[in-house]
Amino acid sequence: MSRPYIYCPQCGQTLQMVHTGGMQRNACVTPECGFVQWDNPVPVVAAIVEHEGKVLLARNIAWPKDWYALITGFLERGEDPVTGVMREVKEELDLEPQCANFVGIYEFRRMNQLIIAYHVPATGTVKLNEELNDYKYETFEEARYWDAGTGYALRDWLRGKGFDPKTVDWVRGAG
């Protein structure tokens, strides 16, 4: 989650709310500095992992027992989204991604993220990394989506395959 600065990272002065760029923003009012915290969204890649003919959903170690979601991760400097999403599937699941098919771009306002979602068919044996502690499979027919960024990506992908997924109400924080 994006947090506002208290002090200017350029000159150290206390930031103040000012109207700039059509909005109220944290900014340095020192004329020589001019720093503005634009609070741009952070790009995140998400993978709808298709493994063994089903959708693979995973649970982050910090989440409640009943929360499962897509594989996600931040882009590295200089990395394109296709490379990033395939890297995340390999890092988090130890699966071999076969390709990455673009699904869409979704906002996740609560975390100030811009999610770039892909369908990633993968092969191999699942081995979770330290960020995850469980996973499950759902058939395309039984898969449900959540009302947040990555949930909308799963919904759209399933609809594109001819399914009409229902919503699940358990996710209050998952992307």
Automatic annotation (TrEMBL):
This is NAD+ diphosphatase. It comes from Panacagrimonas perspica. Keywords: Hydrolase, Magnesium, Metal-binding. Belongs to the Nudix hydrolase family. NudC subfamily. It catalyses: a 5'-end NAD(+)-phospho-ribonucleoside in mRNA + H2O = a 5'-end phospho-adenosine-phospho-ribonucleoside in mRNA + beta-nicotinamide D-ribonucleotide + 2 H(+). One of its GO terms (molecular function) is NADH pyrophosphatase activity. Residues 40-160 form the Nudix hydrolase domain. PANTHER family: NAD-CAPPED RNA HYDROLASE NUDT12, NUDIX HYDROLASE, NUDC SUBFAMILY. One of its GO terms (cellular component) is cytosol. Its cofactor is Zn(2+); Mg(2+). GO terms for biological process: NAD+ catabolic process; NADP+ catabolic process.
